[in-house]
Amino acid sequence: MNRILKPELKESREQRRNRTVLGSLRVRLGLVCLLLWAFLDAVAQGEISSDTNKILLHMDQTNQSLSCLTANLTETKVTIVVNDTSVSTGKLFYKRTRNGSVTKLEYEKPELKTLLIDKNKVWIYEPKIKHLQEIDLGKGHSEEVFFVTGIGQSGTAIAKSYDVRLLDEDSVDGVKTSVLELKPKSEKVSALFAKICLWVDQSRWIPIQTRLTESSGDYLTIRFDDMRFNPSLPDKTFKLNIPSDVEKSHYGGQ
């Protein structure tokens, strides 16, 4: 009887071993299929590439440590239909606050003009014509602020509002940059701009040039120079001194 049982015990062990091997193979095959499915799904949905994601993470780190910033700016507006190019120069002041951020652009040439963005409102003061315009940006104010300067948005926030991809590397006045292309996810924003390109400084991971392209092909390029990080900016820097004889108008956004 013992001689009959031994082969059965030996065969049972082989079967168990075979089941273990087959089970392991099934698990590995399942993981491979799962990874392949995830990869194809990511490609289908345009998931951000690893190289692009690294840049956005660097931008997150810079944004976390940024409390104030000043810079000289040059804006170049190109209108293709009439073959016109106009250039404006001035200064940028940016400061993070408890409730968000405040941004001030002081244009010096060709005419004096001040643009102040605070919370969900924009003020445009033109002293030459003695006019102050107040604009209520409404719910989309964070995106509107980003359109103006390209500064003050984290990489995470950008990825939520735009489809982002790395186009290339480029040198801007000797500064090595990574060029990101942003395409708006919302119809409201895409109606204004077909795409936005950022030239991100590879040493400080902040945009030093922004280009906003309209569906018509016209575009606005904003170049930042002499950037200073976290200087002391008193609150009065962001105050508008408006004479009493200035005409005022208001536009309420949605």
What structural keywords apply?
5 helices; 254 residues; 2 domains; alpha+beta; 12-stranded mixed beta sheet; globular; outer membrane lipoprotein receptor (LolB), chain A; 12 strands
Task: Please explain how this structure is put together.
The chain is of the alpha+beta class and 254 residues long. The protein has two domains: 1-43; 50-252, Lipoprotein localisation LolA/LolB/LppX (outer membrane lipoprotein receptor (LolB), chain A). It has helices at residues 2-44, 50-65, 141-149, 155-161, 187-190, and strands at residues 68-79, 84-97, 100-109, 113-118, 121-126, 131-136, 162-172, 175-184, 195-201, 207-213, 219-229, 247-252. The termini are far apart. The relative contact order is 0.16.
CATH topology of the largest domain: outer membrane lipoprotein receptor (LolB), chain A
Instruction: Say how many strands there are.
Output: 12
Q: What are the segments in which pLDDT stays under 50 over at least 5 consecutive residues?
A: 4-10, 27-46
Q: Order of strands in the sheet with the most strands? A: 7-8-9-10-11-1-2-3-4-5-6-12
Round the Cα radius of gyration to an integer and report it.
28 Å
Principal-axis shape equals globular
**What string, H for helix and E for strand, traces the elements in order?**
HHEEEEEEHHEEHEEEE
| Overall domain count | 2
The helix fraction, in percent, is: 25-40%
End-to-end CA span: 90 Å
